[in-house]
Amino acid sequence: MGKLSGKYAVVTGGGQGIGRAIVEAYLKEDIAGLVIIDYNVEVANKTKVEIDPDGRITVVSCDISSRESVETAFQEVFKVLPQVDILVNNAGITRDAMLHKMKYEDFARVLHTNLFGGFSCTQMVAPGMRERNYGKIVFIGSINSYGQIGQSNYAASKAGILGLAKSNAKELAKHNVTVNVIEPGYIKTDMLKTVPEKIISTWLDLIPMHRMADPSELAPVAVFLASDDSSFVTGNVIRVCGGAKM
Ligand code: NDP
User: Fold this and answer.
1) How many Å apart are CA 28 and CA 50, to the nearest integer?
2) Which residues pair with 38 in a beta bridge?
3) pLDDT along the chain (246 residues), means of 10
């Protein structure tokens, strides 16, 4: 019996990258049912075909930056799953630029996706978790939440996630709902494809392990935080970053 046997999960942005690795790990731990909420339905459906021979995954189209879209998506979620025991707020974007060049729209878009999106999805599942006295919420933050050149919007959104998650953890603790944050370092996904080699190489100099990680190296931490192994772990930040100090 796997660590997530009998449980139901929602993973946002689960169609590719880190989200996909988490979905695969949850399937291996015998999750009973799982909804991938993703903007990119084409890639999410391809993932489903590749990794889900026994039909435990449902893909629901959603733009988490829109409150209306999140509400509609969770109506679908609750038609497919009897309950949501685990929520992974993973979907996120970058729109990097130096402060003097950053467009207001790009600042807003990143905040609305990374921070407001996580807030909206959490609000959809928290009432049920409170009622059932059980829940596991995992936010994917970033080691860049403490500030990074060219990432005023992204760093602000990820720093916001820390305050959001820690507040949610305090509010929900008495209902046996844990809320934690994983802060990845640099992980080999499409998100980093637009970052120039020169920048990546300066980042690698700051990582004692001097390499980027594969998404599968982060997934076991997301299993831990979704399983009863972490029953007394809440309001915490776990970094998966090869020792980076940033
Ligand atoms: P990817 O871009 O590989 O995957 C993210 C997925 O989320 C994509 O399918 C994307 O769709 C989807 N998505 C984007 N915006 C929305 C939206 N508004 N609504 C619904 N789905 C959306 O990203 P990663 O796997 O690299 O990143 C996952 C998380 O990890 C993010 O929160 C990111 O900030 C964080 N992170 C990543 C790091 C890294 O090095 N990769 C480092 C630190 C943190 P589409 O393809 O259409 O954009």
Assistant:
1) 14
2) 61
3) 98 98 98 97 98 97 98 98 98 97 98 98 98 98 95 98 98 98 95 85 91 97 98 98 90
Tell which atom from ligand 1 comes closest to the C-alpha of 63.
Answer: 19
pTM of structure: 0.98
- Structure confidence by residue, pLDDT tens digits, 13-41: 999 999 999 999 999 999 999 999 999 99
What is the CATH topology of the domain spanning 8-240? Rossmann fold (3.40.50)
Give which of 102, 82, 83, 69 is closest to 91, Cα–Cα: 69
Atom of ligand 1 nearest to the CA of 89: 32
| Cross-strand bridge partners of residue 135 | 177
Whole-number Cα distances in Å, 99 to 42, 157, 200, 225 = 34, 15, 20, 35
3-state secondary structure 11-75: EECCCCHHHHHHHHHHHHCCECEEEEEECCHHHHHHHHHHHCCCCCEEEEECCCCCHHHHHHHHH
Q: Does ligand 1 lie within 6 Å of residue 64's CB atom?
A: yes
Q: Residue 184 belongs to what H/E stretch?
A: strand 177-184
Active-site annotation, residues: 154
Residue 78 contacts by C-beta under 8 Å, 6 or more apart in sequence?
A: 84
Instruction: Please choose, from the candidates 200, 118, 208, 214, the residue with its C-alpha nearest in 3D space to the C-alpha of residue 159.
Output: 118
- Reported for 69-74, long-range contacts at CB under 8 A and 24+ positions apart, including other chains, are 70/117, 70/120, 70/121, 70/124, 71/120, 71/124, 73/37, 74/121, 74/124, 74/125
Is any ligand 1 atom within 6 A of the Cβ of residue 189? yes
For 73-94, write each residue's pLDDT tens digit. Answer: 999 999 999 999 999 999 999 9
